[in-house]
């Protein structure tokens, strides 16, 4: 039978089971598995357990919750258990290829007060969209793989490949512990993997499907400044003490300028120069510069207006973003406090040929120099919180060719091959440790609002994504 005729009954089941698939995602979204919030760690664990029970129900030959020990410093809660990695296996036929699918079941924080129109941990169906935290990043795709298994089962069609899952619960917090697990399991649970398929990014725009062959890395830093032993009244102490927050803001303001230029010496010099061949690749990408305004919801905030400039600065140049200040007053009202200890958080998205070690040296030396220039008596410390490498692959290998065929079958167009500005640091670890290749097959759209308020997944992308994932397995296995 041809791939296409094998897929027909599976696609029919995907359409039939739409309601069940939405309910499965609803259940997942209702578990607030925020890895960055230590108080919600039990929910992250619960989400891992939910996936395990679903995989068992779907007939896995083996499902394990791999424990990763406790979370290393900095943590507020001592001996905080890391969420388990959910590994499972369907089939072990030596005549078939083996595909490992990776996804993450943790999510970014979300609160209605941040400006959401609906409760973030409730799945709302509205205007053919599924709204809720994690709908696109990354519960939709993770649950999508479970749905692929169910559609095969209901259609009575055997999986065309051996299928392994690796679903983690710490991706949004640096994938702590996963590198070691992959290393330890390379010759055990993950032995013989031919392709790693990752569905954890998005189309570039809203109309055309894409396949992704490059990611930026990310280095996350924290600067802490500590002065008085407790917060102080600014009427009593303002003007007569060195304030930690003032020191911190001065330092943070010297990291990047208003045009996105990183002010830390040495960083720009590490970036690989643009070749003529690379420069030409951007010309053919289907991207309208106007999509940037739509995706941000603001007309005038983009630094660049030219398509090539936008894409290059998103994919192949580093960027530095300031994320927040822990310990600072941030509520409503007008509290007149001098915070005693504040920690500034920022990250740098990395690209070829930046190395994490060299970058961290440049960053920490610069931060120390800037603090010394303040002549402040406050206590200063700075360091790397977590890092993960950039990734670049060959979009013409057989793993990408199967993904291209699957995409074309489902969406009726050839996908664009793109890079991505975000980071999935574990991609490179899989490739190195399992001596294999990875493919990024995104489910959601560029305007899904991952990490933002009102995160959504279009129903068409959810259902089309499940069909594309199914087709991918069949083209790969043929
Ligand atoms: C692209 C992916 N869905 C994602 O959102 N990755 C995160 C990874 C990360 C690293 N530190 C914290 N989160 C990202 O790119 O921010
Ligand atoms: Zn993600
Ligand atoms: Zn994310």
Automatic annotation (TrEMBL):
UniProt-annotated binding residues for Mn(2+) 2: 104, 137, 200
SUPFAM superfamilies with a match to the protein in the record: Zn-dependent exopeptidases (SSF53187)
Binding positions for Mn(2+) 1 per the UniProt entry: 137, 172, 451
UniProt xrefs under InterPro entries: CNDP/DUG1, Cyt/Met_Dipeptidase, Peptidase_M20, Peptidase_M20_dimer
TM regions (residue ranges): none
UniProt cofactor note: Binds 2 manganese ions per subunit.
Keywords from the UniProt entry: Hydrolase, Manganese, Metal-binding, Metalloprotease, Protease
Residues that bind substrate: 200, 233, 336, 349, 423, 451
Active site: 106, 171
Protein name: DEKNAAC102877
Species name: Brettanomyces naardenensis
